[in-house]
Fold Polyisoprenoid-binding protein.
Amino acid sequence: MTTALGLPGLTSGTWAIDPVHSTVGFTVRHLVVSKVRGRFDDFSGAITIAVDGTPSVRAEIQVASIDTNSEQRDGHIRSADFFDVEQFPTATFVSTGVREAGPNYVIEGEFTLHGVTKPVELAAEFFGVNPGMGRGPVAGFEAKTTLNRKDFGISIDMPLEGGGAVVGDQININLEVEAGLQA
């Protein structure tokens, strides 16, 4: 359940996520012994703070905007083997609650990817509010979670001869967010 939170400087209104100063990134195991890092370049969202201080979050990711620094790999990830972006072009997150967790927060919500919606929890840190650079105040956050790709119907298996798989099941998501208060 979401209740009013003491987020100093985060006034009521809509705080739009600034895609130029934010990152939707991830890591996944590759060949058991290393990690591939990537990001999504096309995303949007907002943090809405009600007059009583109750927060809510909504975000959308254009899945085809994936970038792992390899065009060949990105093309394969966009295919029906993984994301199937032609059929499922968008991933969405809608919060269902925000609660304090010590000095930080947990954002509970529904995440939809590959046509499957599952509850997720994001461990979040609030960095505060800055007056900005002439366009109004900005707020900063970081949020993290781990998802299992198979929970979202992305179940391709590419086993290795010696055990393990080419691509791990666990995906670590890291969100670096700067949001500006809308007039």
In short: The first strand starts at residue 13 and ends at 17.
